[in-house]
Amino acid sequence: MKRIALAAMLGLAVIMPVQAQTVVKHLHITSIPAEVELMNSIAEEFMAQNPDIKVELPFLENEAFKAKLTTLLQSADAPDVFHSWGGGVFYEQAKAGFLRPVGDVLSQEALDNQGTAGVSAFTGPDGEIYGVARDVSEVVLWYNKALFEQAGVDPASMQTWEGFLEGVQTFKDAGITPIAVGAKDKWPAHFWWSKLVVRLAGQEGFEAAARGDGDGFAGEDFVKAGEYFLQLAEMEPWQDGFLAASYSDASGLFGDGKAAMHLMGDWDYGAMKDNSATKEGIPDDQLGILPFPTIEGGKGDPTDTLGGIGGILFSKNASDAAVKWVEFFNSPEQQRKYAEAAYYIPIAKGAADVMTNPFKVQIGQNISGAHWHALFFDQALGPNVGGVVNDVSADLAANAISAEEAAQLIKEAVDDSL
Asked: Has keyword Signal (predicted)?
């Protein structure tokens, strides 16, 4: 009897097929522990509804991600989907054949969910859609109200470049570090040059230079941007050891109340807390956002912003299951969770409506009211030119290069890429 039962069990095991699972690797750069937990919980919810799909969430830190992604995309360990800031870097990945067009697989709901701007951001020069937009972001000048009060600096006095420099000197005289910057990673320094270009050259000037028109990035407005940057750098406004400081170091320094200002993306609201020694950062009532100083005679519109439209791209070997996962992850229902927790500003239709964080609400209004929302220059200009922009920006922050030389190096990089 036992043998018959055992045989029956063995037979049952043979005839009951094991459900095959399609693995979807989603490479991300999320480092805040609570945000990682949220992403994991969304993946668990998806897998519970789709037992035939297994979602894996490998992580790479920001700089390692940039350094290793191209090699990864050419390897057997390539992710199915991965984070993207769009722009020229995305165009190069599409041109190199690293990506899968998904316009014929994405549902109309998923396309409508992103809006025209979102779809456009991840449509390649060939007209194919290679990804989905996830969030919008802005680089803003965060400031510590308590340190402003301690130094006797009126935030309103910082709205012009002259007033800004005077305020920086007042902080120095008071023994307070004016500005935190993570120059080791270089891209945080490029925000200063980029914001100055946005003010001085404006959209038309930047786009003309990117095309290589006329003097390109060696033109007057771009040299001036370097000169203004050097005016600031010569005052030595940064924290001690800024050239060896990473973004996380600078973010934590600001979060610990050891610098008056930090020019950084809206994501720093959470990161400055996570990177601070206390994990609490600056209390909301002591945190503020300053408008980047205006420059007399600048061609930019005062409403112009700098930031990005972040998203998710599909690698060339991505399966339809990967598309299904991303549609679920990027749905308004799931993205509202990110809005409620103030991790970022989702692009999903209606998701940002639930935001209550005053800083995120203000930034969302800035972007929606912008004449030009400029994409991060190191991404907009592609990997080769963007790398040069980051290099010269770090050199300008260190007062180690002339404005003319910096502008010429960027122009040469553009010329080489055309």
From this structure: yes
